[in-house]
Amino acid sequence: MFSTALTVHLFPLHRTTEFSPHHHRSSRYRPTRGKPLRINVAKFSSSVKEEIEKPPPVPSEGSDEGNEVLTSWESIGLPPVTAAKRVVLVRHGQSTWNAEGRIQGSSNFSVLTQKGEYQAEISRQMLLEDSFDICFSSPLNRSKRTAEVIWGSRAEEIVTDSNLREIDLYSFQGLLKNEGKAKYGEAFLQWQMDAPNFNIDGHYPVRELWSRARSCWKKILTHESRSILVVAHNAVNQALIATAIGLGTEYFRVLLQSNCGVSVLDFIPKSEGGSPEICVNRLNQTPSSPISAGGGRKTSTRIILVCHGFPQNNLEGSNPFSVDIPMNMLGTIQAQKIAELLLDAKVSTIVSSSAVASVETANAISRVQEAADCLGADCAPRCVETKQVADFDVENILHKTKNDLTRFQPLQSSWLKGFEEEVRKELWEKAGVAWQLLLEELSKGSSNPENVVVAVGHPALHIAMMGHCLNLSDEWLGLFHLDAGSISVVDFPDGPTGGGVIQCINYTAHLGRWSVPITKIKGKYENIVT
Question: What positions carry a catalytic annotation?
């Protein structure tokens, strides 16, 4: 029997598409519109704990290097790659200081708890059949131990890199959170509410972290390996993902990384050279359910994006983007698995497109939600509002392409790149309307103790809506990959108007062996070229 928290070898390599990494997100710490976001590239300080081995040299005071200012992460592009690379990022398991609620930073005094050891073992099983060439790890004990568990009996040695250590928090390190609030007052509040501009002991920790993450990518991407495992920490993994796709420090705490959460990034060489194309294949796939466990700031207000179950495809001569295609047997099983996963949430509203596969998936979720409330003797039946909206119907837009529709099956991570610009723009505009509709639905239930809106639709719609959630543009449509039957979770700890926090993207562990068949990575990527 497959656990809902475990799917073996979930991470196929996919093509990606082009994007322009210079659009910044509006958030609680919004940069001034119309003006470039100025990011001070601060260098490593010698005040970091002695446990950290071989820290980078500190630039001399007043040097040009120390005073470097950038207006966009685009100006420090990633090094080119000559072959496709896959990088799997894993955060360490729960540590003793995680359990105590103590601020760790780059200190090295905590170790894995029993729960953390278990999480690391589940991640090992999750990645057991992935053929990694090398493992990079933070030198801190909690990450090194997690890496050792996951790496298992592989012959190659784990390579530790000081730049993969957790964010340097200086005087905050070792304090309980209530101690930090009592001792540092306004500074602690700024760390919570405006982390990119947070200053302590003369340092800007988040800005320093972003600079350090860029250094990590230079080492990782210039290494000869093609399939790379990186085991590190919450904040540094956030920075690695953000800097890889061109997002600035205002995205700190927006792309969550839970204990032993797995994120996958694909780097594809461009024929003309330069920085590679990048696809986030998945974000924060955790050993436990993202619905019940959660992460980051606690909230009961969320949108769950559900990709409908696998439809009958054009092998039967049908149009792959028709709204009239029902799910096949695999899709029906996937829909049921989705419904079972969502039992951990009390869904208030289900919104779907009118496409048959979406309606069937929505109905499966609704039936299980309503039946769950009738299991007890004294329980009254609950009606889950289900509605179909035209603004979710994007299949007709995709059908406008003059290109060969059979090229788009199965849906690979670069498939949206195959559409004409006018088709992509129309998709983007419609997704913007759909996203606003979801926010309005969420606002209607703001008085409910648990406010969960489920959106069921085509992967293209959800990819575009996640771009709107992050306040990006249509140039980013190739940034994410979604599988049939996957879910992506967006939390709203400050309410529907406060900006979304991505809990996970393309979560498929609930599908077990009913996930879309994939090709194992064996170190050969001849078919992955641009």
Answer: 92, 166
